[in-house]
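Q: What would this complex look like in 3D?
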Amino acid sequence: MNLVESYKDDLKLIDKPWTRVWVIALVLALFILPWFGSDHIVYVLTLIFIYAIGIHGQNILIGYTGQISLGQAGFMAIGAFTFAHLANAGVPIWLSFLGAGVVAGLAGVLVGFPSLRLKGPYLAIVTLGFGIVVYQFLTSFDVLSGGRMGMTVPKLPAILGMSKAFSMYYFTLIMCLAFTILTYNLISSYIGRIFVAIRDNEIAAEVMGVNLTRYKLLSFAISSFYSGIHGALYGMLLGFLDPSMFSFQETLIIFVAVVIGGLASCEGALFGAAFVILVPQMFSELKGMVPIVFGGTIVIIMIFEPLGLAGRWSKIRLYWQNWPFR
Amino acid sequence: MATFLQYMISGLSMGSLYVLVALGIVLIYRSTRILNFAHGDMATMGTFFMFTMLLYKFPFTIAFILSLLFGGLLAVGFYFAVIVPAQRRDATMLGQLTLTVGLSMIIQGVIVLFWGTNSKVLDFPLSDTTVWQVGPVYINALSLGTLAIGIIGSFGLYLLVQKTRLGLAMRATSENLPAAQTLGIPTKMILAISWGLAALLGVLAGLFLAPALLLDPFFMLEPFLKGFSAAILGGLNSLPGAIIGGLIIGVVESLTGGYISLEFKNSVAFVIIILVLLIKPEGLLGKVFKERV
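A: Here is my prediction, written as structure tokens for the whole assembly.
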């Protein structure tokens, strides 16, 4: 089908002319959508963009590098509270975001160290422990979390004369696009190949000259940088932070999003983000039934499509590529 | 010294509940290589079932046995209805883990729907206000009962796994599934029994935990995470490891709560795990990883 003739071909993000058209059309549609959609749709999409960033990060760690991590909520909390403290202290917003990402990334390196020795479920429980320890610290030290009343976060000021909701929408959309493109590039670069090699077989990767320590820690750092930004944006959207927002449930939601979307697939991360936000939203009039429906859809999708939504997506694409021939 | 013994006893009795939870997790992991995130919720479901039975004036023993069976059947049903079809379509390990996360959401939803989120009190014949003095320490009926049930549960499981034909089949299945199948062991049945047994142990822990805490839809989350870490601490493949891990976590937690600070009681379990795993990555009694290229 698509024959790769040169290394440059292999690095291309989009290999067929029509794909480019579809992608540009989709992005344009997202850019003009707020002027036609309701406030609710704008809010939901903003949430999806924010979650997509964190899920991209976890996908790099779980999907591409193969390190199971259940500490996402901890990194999110670190990012969010760092952002809140920096922004409240009067640091410019872009610098606060950078700070949130970098502090979360450093925490990621710290958590990454056990990953050099631990595998699978053992690593999962250590990272899970990290998430719980972060939560405990935030609830115990009022200086960090703003105490019982929580902590206010400055919201994004209205830019270019648009309403606040719209500015936040465009801001998160651009952030999400930037991180998506960054992820695509990272994965097709040599770093991405190393991550995949580590996932497929650590020993073989090491024999091929991969510095396991460096790249495992790098993977943790990158993914928790993403999670930190995710947390910071989330705090900015709500304008309010409370440690209980970053509980074990949050970790599970992001984990589910990564697997449901499709492991080791960038589109999958976007699908996963859309899934975990849209499904509870769509069935919100059922009220008490929402967790049941949400869990039910997760179970049904995982039974019938073990590769997640991205697996189904690639099957659909393959079918239409040769249509009407089979 | 007396306070130390006191903390030891409360730690051991709490630890024996972690042991029951951890044994269930290890049983499922050993046989099907699935980390069961719905373990705590299955136990909660069983406990709420018991609550309803007692509400309708069923005799205590019948309600007790029926709720254990209910929890077991729930797990067996989940195994046959969800895990088997998923495995037939080559679900990955992470995919199966996600399935259990989905199940845990469903069960939580069902519990909130039927019983609401208010805390309830489970009528239990053992109470923690009946206190006896043994030498320098005080011991209450509930923690004595918990200790006893921990020992009975673990010993019963030991007898079942090591001394019966069913246990032999279970060990064979977890050791090598295709070989066990070739030898004529009904592996699906055995795996389903492992799931059921695991959930039964979980419900047992839940029933003895509910009188100490209050009964609400999320009361098993904390003990589940502790049981999980106990299983990891002892080594996910090892049943004796789960017992040792559970007791260690219970005791250390109680000592930290008593001597250092109540606030960090919950974090300390994880700090121990991280330290132990850094020295022994496969857990205290786990088998060393073998990896081939």
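A: To summarize the key features: Residues 212-238 of chain A form the longest helix (27 residues). The mean pLDDT of chain A is 86.
Q: Very helpful, thank you.
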